[in-house]
TrEMBL record:
This is Fatty-acyl-CoA synthase. Signal peptide: none annotated. It comes from the Bacteria. Residues 15-388 form the AMP-dependent synthetase/ligase domain. InterPro entries: AMP-bd_C (IPR025110), AMP-bd_C_sf (IPR045851), AMP-binding_CS (IPR020845), AMP-dep_synth/lig_dom (IPR000873), ANL_N_sf (IPR042099). It comes from Desulfoscipio geothermicus DSM 3669. Belongs to the ATP-dependent AMP-binding enzyme family. Pfam families: AMP-binding, AMP-binding_C. Keywords: Fatty acid metabolism, Ligase, Lipid metabolism. CDD domains: ttLC_FACS_AEE21_like. Residues 438-512 form the AMP-binding enzyme C-terminal domain.
Length: 531
């Protein structure tokens, strides 16, 4: 018997409500495909029924390697509807990286868009016990097993759109760790529910919202907008290729009102040659995160009639945790000053509640003077349940009763936070996290390499990219191109160093490589870019 004054929170309830309130409203649009909310719910019920028939039940992992298509959106409801846990994998990863995630997560099924069949074919022997379903959007069937539409062509059962335990896992998202191995970040139904509501509250979404999927759904489950837009009763516009021409085409024909994007996407949009011909029928609201945007990017986008909102977070906090909450008095400032303020990380979401900048040694808050640097820490409703099968790493991340971000920042007199640097050596390139240790471990596999250090260097387009400093074994003479090609064969292309430099590496008296000296040389004469 259910309690009168308590209901476990789950974003599954969002779909049930919107299908009841807006049954005939368009919920999903993708090219010629459309689904009303009633149809969206029915497709989810069919999908969940098919999963159940395959034996998927509580805590079973179901993986997706798929761009922003309707099947992946439907999976955010269908998989947890049968008690399963969705594992949405970055489509830019290499075969071995995907294999690791599938094996570590213990996924029982894999739904793959067949454009990415080449990623899976080399690892079929390693994942032979995983059932595969083909998603045939632009390429024909590539593997044994059904295609997606065939798979969900079943008589749907009735489901309860909720959970008995709101702390039950709903998704498992993999992010790079400082050890180089991806960590599995567990989200709960409660956390997903509250962060989804936080997103639509902070972003001003409602039933008239038309949301364009420029943000990958594999990034923190699309910052929880996979559930948030449904909660608002808005319309999801799916997008396969995130390129400026197609973004603007969809903005115009679908009358898009909202989208989310990393700064690299905004750079492409701002520099699109045909931008002057774009006819925006509605004011466009943009949320950006993944890396702090430069004031120039914000200024350029707002010059074409958009409003840009900066948020900040990590995979471990369901995506955005804080927002640069705008104050009307700032509208009177010069455009450059407005853009500079908008690039700050701001204050916690309504649903996040807690964030601070502290001295990591004492855990005491730093003075609100805009100059004293400390570490950003968070706690509250949208902090992860923990790292999957990594209790020691979870305990370390939660030390002192806070989640430690590893990001260095200051707090301004008005309480707004601004990132200044990172404690870790993680490189954020175009919104993608790159572990320097992971790249170094790959380069160390080269027979000619004795020592290597990878650091971030500035890049006009991507914000920052990896550069490898290599000390070779005596008599070895590989070319820079050979090292780069060696990396391309083993890791995702975006992780491959863009530059190589051979020579001795600076070290401490104890033999530790001094990366800060290498970084300082590369960033000399310009402010450290945190993009």
């Amino acid at each position: 018997m259910r309690q009168t004054n308590y209901e476990p929170l789950s974003p599954l309830s969002f779909l049930e409500r919107s299908a009841f309130v807006y049954p005939e409203k368009k919920a999903v649009i993708y090219n010629d495909f459309t689904a009303t909310y009633a149809e969206f719910k029915q497709r989810v019920e069919k999908f969940a029924t098919a999963l159940k028939q395959q034996g998927i039940s509580k805590d079973d992992k179901v993986a997706f390697l798929c761009p922003n298509l309707p099947p992946l959106l439907e999976a955010h409801y269908a998989v947890p509807l049968v008690g399963g846990v969705l594992v949405s994998i970055n489509i830019r990863l290499s075969s071995q990286e995907v294999a690791y995630i599938l094996q570590h997560s213990e996924s029982k099924m894999l739904f793959i868009d067949t454009e990415f069949a080449g990623v899976i074919k080399p690892i079929l022997d390693e994942i032979k016990d995983i059932k595969i379903v083909n998603i045939c959007d632009v390429q024909p069937k590539a593997f044994d097993g059904p295609d997606y539409e065939e798979f969900i062509s079943v008589e749907p059962e009735e489901f309860f759109f909720g959970v008995e335990d709101e702390l039950q896992p709903i998704t498992l998202n993999y992010t790079s760790g400082t050890t180089g191995k991806p960590k599995g970040v567990l989200y709960t139904h409660r956390g997903a529910y509250l962060n989804a509501l936080g997103e639509i509250l902070e972003f001003g979404c409602n039933s008239s919202t038309t949301y364009l999927w420029t943000l990958p759904m594999f990034h923190c489950n699309g910052w929880c907008f996979t559930w948030g837009i449904t909660a608002a009763g808005g319309t999801h516009v799916c997008l396969r290729k995130v390129v400026p021409e197609e973004i603007y085409r969809q903005i115009e024909i679908q009358e898009v009102s909202h989208l989310c994007a990393a700064p690299i996407v905004l750079i492409g949009m701002a520099n699109y040659k045909g931008i002057g011909e774009v006819k925006m029928k509605r004011h466009l609201n943009i949320m950006t995160a993944g890396a702090p945007p430069s004031p120039t990017v914000i200024k350029n986008m707002e010059a074409v009639g958009c409003t840009v909102t900066q948020t900040y977070g990590l995979t471990e906090v369901y995506g955005p945790h804080s927002i640069c909450e705008w104050k009307p008095k700032w509208n009177e400032l010069e455009v450059e000053e407005r853009a500079r303020i908008k690039a700050r990380q701001g204050v916690p979401y309504i649903t996040s509640v807690y964030m601070d900048v502290v001295n990591p040694a004492t855990m005491e808050p730093v003075p609100h003077d805009g100059t004293t640097i400390g570490e950003i820490v968070m706690r509250g409703n949208n902090v992860m349940a923990g790292y999957y099968k990594q209790p020691e790493e979870t305990e370390q991340a939660f030390r002192g009763g806070w989640f430690h971000s590893g990001d260095l920042a200051v707090t301004h007199p008005n309480g707004y936070v601004e990132i200044k640097d990172r404690m870790k050596d993680i490189i954020i390139s175009g919104g993608e996290n790159i572990s320097t240790v992971e790249v170094e471990n790959v380069i160390y596999q080269h027979p000619d390499v004795l020592e290597v250090a990878v650091v971030a260097i500035p890049h006009e387009k991507w914000g920052e990219v990896p550069k490898a400093f290599i000390y070779l074994k005596e008599g070895a003479n590989p070319t820079k191109e050979e090292i780069i090609e060696f990396c391309r064969e083993r890791i995702a292309r975006f992780k491959v160093p863009k530059e190589i430099e051979f020579g001795e590496l600076p070290k401490t008296s104890t033999g530790k490589i001094m990366k800060y000296k290498l970084r300082s040389k590369e960033w000399e004469g310009r402010e450290k870019n945190v993009n």
